[in-house]
Amino acid sequence: MTQIDTNTLSASGSEPDRGSMFERFEEPVVRSGQIGLLLLLAAIFFMPIFGSLLTSIRTIEDITTNGSWALPSSYEWENLQIAFIKMLPFLKASTIITLPSVAGTLLVATMAGYALSRLRFQGRLWMFLVIVSLSFVPIHTQLIPVFRLISEIGLHDTFIAQIIVHIMRHIPFAVLIMTNFFNTVPGELREAARIDGANEWTIFRRVYAPIARPAISALVVLEFTWIWNDLLWGLVLTQGTGKKPVTVGILSFQGEYEIAYNMVASGAVIAAIPTLAVFLIFQKQFIRGMTMGSVKG
Amino acid sequence: MNARYTPWLFLMPAIVIYGFFGAIPILQTFYISMTDQVGVAGAGNFVGLTNYIELFQDEYFLNSLKNTGIWVACFLVIPNTLAVIIALLVKRTFWGASIIKTVFFLPLALSFAIVGVIWAWIYEPDVGLLDQLLIGLGLDVLIVEWLGPHAGNFSVIAAAAWRQTAFATVIYLAGLSAIPQELIEAAKVDGATRRQVFFRITLPLLKPANTIAVSSALIQALLATEIVLTMTRGGPFGMTEVVGYRMYMETFWNYKFGYGAAIGVVVTIMTATMVVPYVRRMAKAMEREWS
Amino acid sequence: MAHVAIKDIYKNYGAVRALKGIDFEINDGEFVALVGPSGCGKTTLLRMIAGLEDITGGEIHIAGRVVNDLQPKARDIAMVFQNYALYPHMKVADNMSFSMQLAGAPKDEIKTKVEEAARILNLENYLDRYPRELSGGQRQRVAMGRAIVRNPKVFLFDEPLSNLDAKLRVSMRAEIKALHQRLGTTAVYVTHDQIEAMTMADKIVVMSEGHVEQVGTPLELYDEPQNLFVAAFIGSPSMNLMEATVTESGLKIGSFPEIATQSYDWLPTGKEIVVGMRPYDFAIGDTGLKLDVSVTEPTGVETQVAGHIEGKPVTCLFKERVSGRYGDTMHVTPNGPLHVFDKETGQRLGTAFTVTKH
After folding, report:
1. Among residues A97, A107, A101, which one has the least CA distance to residue A175?
2. B291 falls in which pLDDT band (50, 70, 90)?
């Protein structure tokens, strides 16, 4: 036992045979190697983002003369300003599309998840399996008919079309998450509420929905990021600038500036800020959402 | 007890929205794939399996199919291996762990559009971040035409793998923290070395996380449309096209809706075969839950 | 307060018959325990009284009204759940008054009622807390508070103490009993713990496999168990049951000499019976039944001896301090009432008494 007391660093508490002696000797070396490797990986991982931030505040002349990795000779905040002004309509459109889409998805999915998890009815398992399967349906399976349908009902190049389609696309996953969450809430709460005189809607609204706050907040963060980051629907369902989301905006921005890398990077930074901010502020919810049985990325 | 229709009232909004805008279109895709429809207007003529026969003689499509295969293979290995290593390393750090974690998670917040734009700049010949980095390190010999016909597909995969690794790291870290510390301690008391603990306890218990990470990697690799669209537009000479991108091009650039739908069906079938085991597992879990 | 009648109640889950004709009555203000092993249907029956389960057949009356088709809220009952089922997002006060809020009761009335219930249950200082900030015993009291506030005709308890530790269970047992005596509300209490049932209930309904084995006061069940099931179930440690034969001079257990018995002339000689003896009803002697000791457990006040007679497990409790270890033998003689059961049917035949030798 004293072996362990005198050597708290050791991961192994077994008797001092050759193996553990070796491990003990090895420990600090291995550990610093591990930390070194970790920092190296982190640096490589961060490089794209750091490089973009760096590029976004430099001038083209500076980049071409001093190389892409040099510290800026002067800070060109104007790049970001120009990018922001150019991106503003797209940012606006993305906001108008994303917020109602997230709210709609959550409302619809929370109700459906409650029913699937807590109410007994014929075809419940079948319904659940259909929803699980639908959460894997690739966008390619729906792209053409949805495009045609939206055009036919005259909703092409509108916000409402994008909102409805986003809600549709995200219903299966959100229902799956909410069902799984409600499965973890004791069923007795529903019975207690029934005895207390609540009807099904009241039970949902006043008992289960408030309890689901952690799941809902996690889903809000996830869905916000996903819907905000969608590109294909934004490309397919829009025509004019006013209705295009920021993901499409960054593409046209890229097309416009081509080799003005500093401007392209500025555009990317501006376009990334909303989701990055949401991610950094709500990282806990984001991670919780990811790990709540998600298979998406 | 509760009225028979109550559950359906709760499910109705989901069913109506998905049914009208999601489920019916799925069926329509299958039908459209058997027509020669061009553009939005009209319905096209029924042509049976003609589109499919044409598809598998189409050099562009076959090339995109090959590229998708490479995507799947790379995605199964690279993000998963990297993520396990990162997760294990991060798990053992005690200082600054949360900042390091955030660095690894960050790509998840970025859209494929932005990932594409950023990485296009990284791969830019001569002035690009990667070339400049290699020159700075004296590794000029390694420089190739990153987005050229030979390396292009792999370069796009690397960019996407960057984001996928972030996802897998989240999953594996969660998987690691779900392993009860007592198990590790018990193994140590039983005389296991650190290596044995890893291979005989930790790794087997990461199986559920592995399932999730692998399914996700498969799906992302099969779809991979948006990032190709933003980085290379399939070029040069269609060398970086993947099936999902091919479908988008045939439909929205060539307006061959019937043909595009046929590619869509192929993508769907490939995805479906990949997720069958996962859906089965879910079914079993739910049956247990609800019995 | 109300009279509850359970009339020929059946419950089927598909092909599974969970309850097979349950019949008993609960008088106004009575505390009735439904007791039995898990799976006996006691919780199902309680949930049917509450209105949480459909009734397959039969009728349930509360206060003279058939409630079969009434929603739970219309039955004027309150229920305390095994896991308390407190609303985790509501403070204690809101948990207790949720039913009144739903019914649209005026705010000051709600306040009065909640405060009154809190005073009764010593929860005054916790009204602003969330359930997660309370100990197990406090949560238990909040669950009861929620029931009290409604001032229902019947209280329903579903194993309310099973999530508490042993010590707390004993004190909550007393609290619930005191509360019942104070409020005088009819109560139905489900438990698998026969001691809980014995100590708390005015009347016990023993159930097994979907039917009622016996209904009676705690002491009736203890003194005159109607069948082998009740005999084995009620009392701790359990009654010792041994096969025996009726002879001219007494009851003969295995190869031992007859136990001299009086007042058993209603038993035909030669009849095969099962005789039940409470663990307390033995005396140590030099002769008698040979007990192969497995273990002795002294508690100070008494000594519990577990062992075998004729290969059958037996438990005896002695006031004397006896010692013995595995492999020892001692001789014991029954000196209390002998519960006689029909070996074939398991039904009670009557009580015989040993002839005291002193």
Report:
1. A107
2. low
One domain for residues A132 and A279: yes
Please name the member of C52, C83, C87 whose beta carbon is closest to the beta carbon of A194. C52
Q: Contact, B189 vs A104, CB < 8 A?
A: no
Say whether both A206 and A119 belong to one domain: yes
The interface predicted TM-score (ipTM) is 0.90
Contact (CB<8Å) A192/C50: no
- Mutation site, C73, C91, C156, interface A, largest A CB count within 10 A: C73
State the pLDDT at residue A16: 44
Residue-wise pLDDT for B67-84, tens only, equals 999 999 999 999 999 999
User: By three-state DSSP, how is residue C212 classified?
Assistant: strand
**Rounded-to-integer distance, Cα C291 and Cα C296, Å:** 12
- Choosing among 3.90.230.10, 3.40.640.10, 2.40.50.140, 3.20.20.10, the CATH entry for C238-354 is 2.40.50.140
**Residue A23, pLDDT above cutoff 70:** no
Q: For an interface test with A, which of B121, B165, B196, B241 has the most A Cβ atoms less than 10 Å from its Cβ?
A: B121
Residues A84 and A153 in one domain: yes
Topology of the domain covering C4-232: Rossmann fold (3.40.50)
Q: What is the pLDDT of residue A21?
A: 52
**Class (C level, CATH) for B33-290:** mainly alpha
Residues of A whose CB is below 8 A from C146: 192, 196
Instruction: Report CA C346 to chain centroid distance, whole Å.
Output: 20
Q: Where are the domains of chain B?
A: 33-290
Q: Can you give the pLDDT at residue A22?
A: 54
Chain C CA closest to residue A190: C85
Residue extents of the structural domains in chain C: 4-232, 238-354
Strand-strand pairing, C289-298 and C329-334: antiparallel
| Residue of chain A whose Cα is closest to the Cα of C84 | A188
CATH number reported for the structural domain that contains residue A169 in this entry: 1.10.3720.10
Measure CB to CB from residue C89 to each of A195, A198, A210 and give the nearest one. A210
Q: Is residue C192's pLDDT more than 80?
A: yes
pLDDT at position B45 is 87
CB contact (8 A) between residue B22 and residue A142: yes
Across the interface, do B194 and A47 touch by the CB < 8 Å criterion?
no
* Chain A hits for C88, Cβ within 8 Å: 211
Residue A39 structural domain: 2-56
Residue C357: how many other CB atoms lie within 10 Å: 10
Q: Which of A186-200, B181-195, C234-248 has the lowest mean pLDDT?
A: B181-195
Q: Clarify whether residues A167 and A30 are in a common domain.
A: no
| Residue in C with minimal Cα distance to A214 | C89
SS3 C246: strand
* In chain A, % of residues over pLDDT 70: 90
Q: Are A91 and A51 in the same domain?
A: no
Identify which of C6, C2, C4, C49 has the alpha carbon closest to the alpha carbon of residue C26. C4
User: Could you tell me the two tokens for A216?
Assistant: 């809902």
Mutate to test the interface with B, among A25, A58, A144, A224 (most CBs of B within 10 A): A144
Contact residues, chain A, for B196 at CB < 8 Å:
none
Q: Is the CB of residue B127 less than 8 Å away from at least one CB of chain A?
A: yes
**pLDDT on residue A4:** 35
| Residue-averaged pLDDT of chain A | 86
Task: Give a yes or no: residue A256 inside a domain.
Answer: yes
CB contacts, 8 Å: A195 with chain C: 50-52, 72-73, 77-79, 99
A217/A88 same-domain check:
yes
Contact B32/A145, CB-based, under 8 Å?
yes
* Cβ contact, residue pair A271, B93, below 8 Å: no
Q: What is the pLDDT of residues C131-187, one digit of tens each?
A: 999 999 999 999 999 999 988 999 999 999 988 888 889 999 999 999 999 999 999
Alpha carbon separation from C108 to C112, C115, C122, C149, C275 (Å, rounded):
6, 10, 20, 13, 62
Rounded Cα distance, C84 and C134, in Å: 12
Are A44 and A130 contained in the same domain?
Answer: no
C5 and C66 Cβ atoms separated by less than 8 Å: no
In a domain, A61, yes or no: no
